[in-house]
Amino acid sequence: MADADLVAQAREGAGWAHEALYRRHASLVFGLAHRLLGGREHEVDDVAQEAFLQAFEKLDKLRDAQSFAKWVGSIAVRCAQRRLRRERLRRRLGLGPAESIDTERLIAPTTPPDVAAELRRLYAAVGAMPVQVRTALILRRVEGMSVDEIAEHMSLSRSTVKRRVARGEAQLAKLIGGAP
Fold first, then answer.
1. How much is the pTM?
2. What is the mean pLDDT of residues 100-108?
3. Burial environment of residue 17 by CB neighbours within 10 A (0 to 12, 13 to 18, 19 or more)
4. Is 102-180 CATH 2.60.120.560?
């Protein structure tokens, strides 16, 4: 069945349609959450569940039923950003330890030591970026999304996305020694 048909059935209360949408798009949502949160699996599950819960609760607000994948992906991006912002706020207020990107989950054990060290530096640099910049950069560089797709997922204008990606690229270059 097409997503539009499943969405129509889910809007009518068919539990099997909710499950089918979940099964079809779970890897997308979990993948986005995993990469945006830096491999912290306990939080990835929470973000993915939150994204699907919000999507199913607000299914009547989805204008183009066939675009369910993009829509639930956008919700997952916003949920991950909220989680990262809350974590930074708790850290600033001294209410919790800093959670860094779990490089051991993101770097394969077979990775050569010099490459693994460089990846750790890279992940540390990305983890130090503001949430909005980090998200835009990950969506562009890791997910391979276009500026238009990022703008849609982050609910931003194209020019704002371009500025954030450029800022992320500049910060990354500065933090890992690639630029003066």
1. 0.76
2. 69
3. buried
4. no
